[in-house]
Specification:
Elements lengths: L2 H33 L5 H5 L2 H25 L2 H4 L1 H29 L3 H29 L1
Length: 141
């Protein structure tokens, strides 16, 4: 890889780290909100929006750098099956994140069904993220 591709790959990993904030951090915040006294919940919940903004920036960075890497790295030739499976899982993760983003405000108001849905999406997102990273390693190795 040349220096530019290395830089793009580094930015891709930074985007991944930014996106991982939600996958692993937001469930912790959700648990804290559930255990907190009602008067403290809005203060704890206020951290969610800045984290979501970091995640959205990370997702944008992942998408842009990912598209660039597709056309510059030759990964589609090296491991086409695992690479396209990875992209399919990325699409599933993005869809799940959108659903979680729409469901989150309901969960914050105490909607039990929304809270349960968010918990299930959190488990799904963790599994998808791990699989995506594993497939990326296989595809790029």
């Amino acid at each position: 890889m040349d220096t530019v591709t290395d830089l793009i790959m580094a930015l891709h990993f930074i985007g991944l780290a930014m996106g991982g904030v939600a996958t692993f951090g937001l469930p912790v915040i959700g648990a804290m909100i559930d255990k907190a006294p009602p008067e403290h919940r809005p203060s704890i919940g206020a951290i969610v929006l800045p984290i979501k903004n970091i995640v959205k920036a990370g997702m944008a960075m992942l998408i842009v750098t990912g598209i660039i890497l597709v056309f510059t790295s030759g990964v589609t030739d090296a491991a086409p099956g695992t690479f396209w499976l990875k992209l399919l899982l990325v699409a599933a993760l993005v869809a799940s994140i959108v659903v979680a983003d729409k469901t989150g405000p309901k969960a914050m108001t105490g909607d039990a069904a929304a809270k349960e849905k968010i918990k299930k999406l959190g488990i799904l997102n963790k599994a998808l993220l791990v699989l995506i990273v594993l497939l990326a390693v296989i595809s790029f190795h």
